[in-house]
Amino acid sequence: MDQPVLSVEGLSIAFKSGREWRGVVRDMSFTVAPGETVALVGESGSGKSVTSLAIMGLLDRRQSRPTGSVLMNGTELLNLPEPAMRQIRGNQVAMIFQEPMTSLNPVFTVGRQIGEALDRQGAMSREQVRSEVLRLMERVRIPNAATRIDEYPHQFSGGMRQRVMIAMALASRPRLLIADEPTTALDVTIQGQILDLIKELQQETGMAVLFITHDMGVVAEIADRTVVMYRGDCVETGATETVFARPEHPYTAALLAAVPRLGSMQGAPLPRRFPRIDTTDGTIISEPPLQRQIDRKAMPVLSVRNLVTRFAVGADLLGRAKGHVHAVENVSFDLWQGETLSLVGESGCGKSTTGRSILRLIEPRSGEVTLDGFDVMELRGSALQRMRRAGQMIFQDPFSSLNPRMTIGQSVAEPILKHGIAKGREARALAADLLGQVGLDGSMFDRYPHEFSGGQRQRVAIARVLGLSPKLIVADESVSALDVSIKAQVCNLLMDLQDRLGIAYLFISHDMAVVERVSHRVAVMYLGEIVEIGPREAIFANPQHPYTRKLIAAVPIPDPARRGMRRAAAADELKSPIRPRGHVAPRREWRDLGAGHLVMQTG
Questions:
Q1: Segment 167-215, tens digit of pLDDT
Q2: H or E element: which one contains 409?
Q3: Helix, strand or coil for residue 405?
Q4: Rounded Cα gap, residues 172 and 168, in angstroms
Q5: pLDDT over threshold 50, residue 376
Q6: Residue range 280-336, pLDDT digits in tens
């Protein structure tokens, strides 16, 4: 057997808490061989990311105490001086972080940031570096790379920023790639391409991969071996096929049982709660079905007609835009009380822009939006603020949507105080109750966002909007950062609130298995346009548009037998939404399949 690239033996990690040291990871041991992929899986807060940061030497040495052994190609990393550790980072080991917006420098172009690893090697000219950066951007499927190389991180969607991070990590062809939730923000088609890309690089270079994720479908497709973590302990490890077929620990069995599986909703017209899992003995507790029917004879909570949002790009000598990004083009739909309409599509297709445009967080160019009786496009000042109590948004990146100087209790209570719902102790009690509803302990009330894992921060963001009892919640990838068991809990919470209060959800997601579980209707977006919309059963059982079929076919299945699969990436995925000045969008024809199932005509 080959000498391991990485060997972790008896790794324990403690953090300073006041005058005491609190253990968060205990006695972790595993190896990663050349060309091998080891998946580190477990709940949010179980210690997966902390383990990876200790391996990279990125923990604050004054506040953390890692013990044990971490060998990289025979070199002990735990006690390595920082200058020597910097030589290993990037050259021998690279890391893709979970939240791309906090990892990218907002003042430098993405091309410059990808090129930094190449510049450090000093063997390439400026032209060669730019050429290699373009090749990397195209390889991770960033559309129109030649134009976007000089753009800044804020001009990219969440999924696009994650692809930039992957390109940066791969630039120096490291011996070991640590991937911390690298496909969390990506839609299923790009996720599949990234997984294939990592496999190809492993075959070409013998690169080892430590893959940290909560997505068991991804684990099944990419991992040779799986290490399961629970509350800082390694509870099970073994070949992926064995772990999936015959899990020995109750938590592993519970983790696999909680995975949403495409096709599980066949014959069920309404959304259905996820089963609850007892992680002490693996018992699966089925939830009763939801009962609420949608009254489509009533007025819709949200009505959108011919919504258009475009962004100017470039400028000529007269200062006029050379072209526009057609982010949202003639989008129309209705959403009723107690209904979930899921908006799905590739990263950069316009899903998030549609949600932000509806709430006027981005100014649309034209169209009509009516929300709970408000003519959204005409609102100004205090009237716009009143409307936003009726319509709230859960953002994709929880870290950037929470104030780092406010405790999570203050963040959750802030909108309650601002809108005059409660004051003082009553507001604090309401905020604490909301945190409890999303699975966070009351003792966390006075902690700050940086003290939480990515999944925990997303739960804080969800609690924050629930306090206003809105009529509409635009949930922009609201469960994408959560591990499977917490994802199930949060989805159940959202469905329970909907069942009890009649909240309407515009559920923006790339997780098709979750979409199938929670949706009444589904709208599929491609390059700023809705190409198919209809009841969830019809979309999943009888998809008519070629793009819808491709999305469904790309969903990762939790079956290790699929590990050898490769997907053929079609060239048409690289189309750009940028159009020249004066471009007139073509008139679209629709085919009505009945029961509200509409599909855009192709060709």
A1: 888 888 889 999 888 776 666 777 777 777 778 778 877 899 999 987 7
A2: helix 408-418
A3: coil
A4: 8
A5: yes
A6: 655 666 666 676 778 888 999 999 999 999 998 888 888 788 888 889 999 999 999
The pLDDT tens digits for 131-154 are 999 999 988 878 889 989 999 998
CATH for the 302-600 domain, from 3.90.1150.10, 3.40.630.30, 3.40.50.300, 3.20.20.70: 3.40.50.300
In DSSP terms, 521 is beta-bridged to 341, 535
CA dist 170 and 325 (Å) reads: 29
Using DSSP, state whether 231 is helix, strand or coil.
Answer: coil
- What is the spatial distance between Cα 441 and Cα 494, in angstroms, rounded to a whole number? 19
Q: Which amino acid makes up residue 218?
A: V
First to last CA, the chain: 54
The top-level CATH class assigned to 1-92+174-257 is: alpha beta
Half-sphere exposure of 137 (CA within 13 A, CB side): 27
The tally of CA atoms less than 13 A away on the side-chain side of residue 519 is 30
- Residue limits of CATH 3.40.50.300 in the chain: 1-92+174-257, 302-600
Strand (E) or helix (H) holding 475: strand 472-476
Q: Token pair for residue 42?
A: 């477990």
Helix (H) or strand (E) holding 21: strand 20-32
Instruction: Compute the distance between CA of residue 6 and CA of residue 52 in angstroms, rounded to an integer.
Output: 11
